[in-house]
Amino acid sequence: MDLQSIVKSVRGAQPEALVADAAQEEHLELTPDRWREVARHLIDDADLQFDALMCLSGYDEGPEGSLAVIYHLFSMQHKHKLEVRIKVPRDGGSLPSVADIWRTADWHEREAYDLFGMTFEGHPDLRRILLPDDWEGHPLKKDYLTPDYYRGIPVPKDKRGWE
Amino acid sequence: MTATDSKSSNFGVVETEEMVLNMGPQHPSTHGVLRLKIRTDGEIVTHIEPHLGYLHRCFEKHCENLSYEQVIPFTDRCDYLASMANNHIYALGVEQMMGLEVPDRVEYIRIIMVELQRIASHLMGVGTFGLDVGGITPFTYCFRDRERVLDLFEYTCGARLLYNYIWIGGLSHDLPENFVQYANEFLDYFEPKIDEYNRILTYNKIFIERTGDVGVLPADVAISYGCTGPVLRGSGVSWDLRKNEPYSIYDRFEFDTVLGTGEMGTLGDCWDRYFVRIQEMRESIKIVRQALAQLPEGDVFEALPKKVRPPEGSIYFRGESPRGELGYFIVSDGKNVPYRVKMRSPAFCNLSVINEIGAGWMISDIVTILGSLDIVLGEIDR
């Protein structure tokens, strides 16, 4: 199935989930609030059957823009792909978790939360996964400032001699 | 009532307390610095919670400050047992963004290197798996043969582990003199050795007892958790990106997708996952032989771009690393530095299934299951 027919199918099931010009050149943009219903439709519909979540990435548009979560879906049955983007506000942004729909999302959502700071409502265990639990800030945000100290250990910034 | 009577009246009802055990981060069978928090009821494990991040080196943060070419040595260090595959898939992704065509000779040399790397990586996986279940000798055999692959790599590019060999648009070196002959000699030497592994490990009674029927992973669970590579194929799902979604020039070679059969127990058990790796080495030998025979002449440096500046846009490119589906999500804003690089690592997803298939087994079986997933912590923690 190509993107146009996928958009048509999603529009038929959840019309208010789509952002105005939903079908960009290569991805589908959705609003956060109906994401769970759309995800159910994507995996359950017999013509779509997106049973594999290949990748889930956090994304930051820049200090003035918003954060986004990008889902790369694939159907082992029909061999078609879909890229879904959902934008969330920069501060305190949150979107529904799909960890129970695609189990891959469980750890990947933790990773996105860890590095970008958006929260996933309904996630079974939303904790940091790669960074220490007491780390401050979310390092992959474009306005993140590297701290001077971590637990009293100076973070090396002086690169003379090795760069 | 005497004390003896009170004991005998409770016979058969053994009450135990739940106990929390920490396995790792310094534990020989966790293959690196992984910590498993295990809740046990007596000898039986009821819940496994992996704690990651001990080896986190901020790969994705580094990428924001490095040019596209400079990212390649960092991809080496992600999956340090399969650096060639990491280089290859990243380079292919960037090349596709730029619309860059590379000479045929480059494509063939890349395939030869990546498949030799797959042999080396599977040898490591098979050897350490034997070690996990108590067989020390196969491990030394595997390392003996892996050394010869590393010798070939050293002869080609000077490095034994972290190569930085496959560049965007080309290679760092052409093949050295007589490489084809040495590679063929290695393949002739190595092919009969697989039967030796089968004799010493695969069909060993104790090994089968330890791995058959243990940690069964059903196919639908594997897909839902995003398991790929030998872990998914061990569950009987015919899914190999080299075959099903041919990238590079994999469509020019004849090889088979190896599947688990449940020969020594249930489909999707540890033995199946292990045996898929053994058979995949044979398939890799087939591919390398064909590529060596067809290797064209040419200049490997002719397509190297002066400046790597992919146009604005994004790509998700995936390929089959020895551990499964390795994907790079690359976003470009038109500069020579990537805006965002996300690495989808196969071992990260494969490890996440451990609680699903490990709960209900004994601690010694957890070691077996973990070994059969063949994880590399460098790739999980990035």
Which descriptors apply to this entry?
heterodimer; A: 163 residues; alpha/beta; Beta Polymerase, domain 2; five-stranded mixed beta sheet; two-stranded parallel ribbon; 21% helix; 27% strand; elongated; B: 382 residues; alpha+beta; Cytochrome-c3 Hydrogenase, chain B; three-stranded antiparallel beta sheet
What is the element layout, followed by pairings?
The complex is a heterodimer of chains A (163) and B (382).
Chain A: H1 3-13, E1 18-23, E2 28-30, H2 35-44, E3 52-60, E4 67-74, E5 81-88, E6 94-96, H3 104-116, E7 119-121, E8 149-150, E9 153-154
Chain B: H1 3-9, E1 18-23, E2 35-41, E3 44-51, H2 59-63, H3 68-76, H4 83-98, H5 104-132, H6 137-157, E4 166-167, E5 170-171, H7 179-202, H8 205-211, H9 219-224, H10 230-234, H11 241-244, H12 270-294, E6 313-321, E7 324-332, E8 340-344, H13 346-351, H14 354-358, H15 363-373, H16 377-381
Antiparallel strand pairs in B: 1-2, 2-3, 4-5, 6-7, 7-8
Account of the protein in words:
The complex is a heterodimer of chains A (163) and B (382). Chain A contains three helices and nine strands, in the order αββαββββαβββ. Chain A is α/β, with parallel strands linked by helices. Chain A has a single domain, classed as NADH:ubiquinone oxidoreductase Nqo5 subunit (Beta Polymerase, domain 2), CATH 3.30.460.80. In chain A, strands 1-2-5-4-3 form a five-stranded mixed β-sheet. A two-stranded parallel ribbon of chain A has the order 6-7. In chain A, strand 4 and strand 5 (81-88) form a beta hairpin. The termini of chain A are far apart. The model of chain A has no long low-confidence stretch (mean pLDDT 83). Chain B is α+β, with helices and mostly antiparallel strands and 382 residues long. Chain B has one domain (69-340): Cytochrome-c3 Hydrogenase, chain B (Orthogonal Bundle), CATH 1.10.645.10. Chain B is 48% helix and 13% strand. Chain B has helices at residues 3-9, 59-63, 68-76, 83-98, 104-132, 137-157, 179-202, 205-211, 219-224, 230-234, 241-244, 270-294, 346-351, 354-358, 363-373, 377-381; strands spanning 18-23, 35-41, 44-51, 166-167, 170-171, 313-321, 324-332, 340-344. In chain B, the strands form three sheets. Chain B has a three-stranded antiparallel β-sheet. The longest helix of chain B has 29 residues, at 104-132. The radius of gyration of chain B is 23 Å and the shape is globular. Chain B starts with a helix and ends with a helix. Chains A and B meet through strand 3 and helix 3 of A and helix 9, strand 7 and strand 8 of B.
